[in-house]
Amino acid sequence: MYLYLPVALTSINILIPIGLGLAVGLLSGLFGVGGGFLMTPLLIMFGIPSTVAAATDSNQIVAASTSGTYAHWKVGNVDFKMGLYLLVGGFIGGLFGVQAIKVLKATGNADFVIKMTYVLMLGIVGTYMFIESLASMRKAKKKGDVKLTEPTQKDSAFGRFLKSLPLQTHFEKSGVTHSLLLPVIFGGFVGVLAAIMGVGGGFLMVPVMVYILRMPMHVVVGTSLFQILFNCIEVTFLQAYTNHTVDFILAVLLLLGSTVGAQIGTVFGRKLKGDQLKIILAVIVLVVTVKIVFELTLTPSLLLAQGGGH
Amino acid sequence: MKNFKFQISNFKIALFLSLCCAAAVLLYCSPSFAELTIKANHDHITIDFFYHGSTVSVSGISDPGTDLIVKIASPEGHQALRKKGKAGGVLWMNVGELKFEDMSNFYSLHSTGKPDEILNREEIDKYVIGYPAINRHAKISPVANEEEKNKWFDEFIKFKESSKLYSVSSGKISRTVKDGKQEYSIKLDWPYQAPPGDYIVTVYAVKDKKIVEKAETKVFVEQVGFVKTLFDMAKNKGALYGIISIVAAIGAGFGVGLIFGKGGGAH
């Protein structure tokens, strides 16, 4: 059955967005990512204009992350305090990122920098997570450890430096003690990159929480979703208000799948161990990296595209 | 006096008769006077939620033996598209924008024979019949030379054809002669990708490589009902539309969470 999308100005078989929503929502509930890096290109592939695809995706992520945050909150996996500081940092970083884009566009190098940042970030994060979680899984296997431990704060120079920062506070839910500045600074760093790349930044925020803030993986997923929810509310509003590119009907079709997918993902996530979750996410990130590298090197079938967005 | 009046009325009759004769001679000598007509059976296409394109039949009457060209096009205008190129000679990415002027967003051309076989070049260019004529008529910028213009024009056609907005065909118009008149018709698939707006449907009658007559009608594509309400709201009341979209998404997220939550629980 086909439905006409009033803002995208195209008609689509409703099974496509519902199916895509289900698949990406599942990943969202499992790993705490919004899934924009998967959903937006898929929507474009099915004939949705790129600007509408990106804006509408943020709208449906609001639904999926509400559903996912709620599911994780119910099982005690959302660190609201940490999420709030990350949000503050992310918001400030986002403002800087938008300015950076303006400067890049003025110099005419925007697209190159955006694509390169994207590929490098995905590649580095994916490879690091893959190697680290593989090593961690092997170690656990050797020890015959039944319960996998999450990475613990090593007493390294970096660790000592973090402990010496002012405004130390305990994050009860995550079971870690950090300076308040830490989530704000790293949230800001992700915010800058996310704004430059035009993505939600979940795939960057998750490694920051795991490897720098040393939070347990399950709390990372819930907290990341909480943070993504607020980011996407802001982005949806701005896109609807300034660009008029949110397609409500497409968003509803997507969220029919993604809200259910996020719930199923959360259930599955509980059955998987932290390192298993990390390694699967690492593989997905690496597959997307390879796909983008192919897109960048193979001659595209069409050399023209609709204007707007990136 | 009576004689004078009689002479005047005689003169009037003679003048009327000679005018009639002249008109008959003129009509007889005219190269084509069988009126060319055009009718689109579906001239008001409404877009509702279940719209997935439509069909439009264009038909009419023409002089027997004339070739016909049916052109459906949106008004000419300006379009800006992003172009892809190799950055640093290696990586494909967007490398700028191209402006296409005096080109229609939608162009569908159907003829009884190939345009360059049934029409001469001047006529093709004058009425912008077919892709080569559009290329000569349009402006593309910025391009360094004619060769580059041709390259990007070909890419433009490829892009438009991929979204079904441009199409050309020959030999699909059916013609039958009845009572000394030629009836023609063609049934066309109307793509759902064609945006709302006015489309001009023109039929050209062709004889001796020249266009001897043309007739026009319109196809009006319009969003209706809730589709229109949502479109208008998205364009004109962005803030309200955004808030509704967000609230609906949060509501749906919570709703599904509650439904699933009943069966779940903390661990």
What does this protein look like?
The complex is a heterodimer of chains A (310) and B (267). Chain A is mostly helical and 310 residues long. Chain A has one domain (2-297). Helix content of chain A is 73%, strand content 6%. Chain A has helices at 15-31, 36-45, 50-74, 80-107, 110-143, 157-164, 181-197, 202-212, 217-243, 248-271, 274-297; strands spanning 2-5, 10-13, 168-171, 176-179, 304-306. In chain A, the strands form two sheets. In chain A, strands 1-2 form a two-stranded antiparallel ribbon. A two-stranded antiparallel sheet of chain A has the order 3-4. In chain A, helix 1 packs across helix 9 (217-243). Chain A is globular, with a radius of gyration of 19 Å. Chain A starts with a strand and ends with a strand. Residues 145-153 of chain A have low confidence and may be disordered. Chain B has 267 residues and is an alpha+beta fold. Chain B has a single domain (34-227), classed as Immunoglobulin-like (Sandwich), CATH 2.60.40. Chain B is 37% helix and 38% strand. Chain B is built from seven helices and 13 strands. Chain B has helices at 2-29, 115-118, 121-126, 131-137, 146-162, 225-236, 238-263; strands spanning 39-40, 44-47, 54-62, 67-73, 76-87, 91-104, 107-111, 139-141, 166-170, 174-178, 181-190, 197-207, 210-223. The termini of chain B are far apart. Classes of the chains: A mainly alpha (310), B alpha+beta (267). The interface between A and B is large, with 63 and 65 residues. Strand 5 of chain A pairs antiparallel with strand 5 (76-87) of chain B.
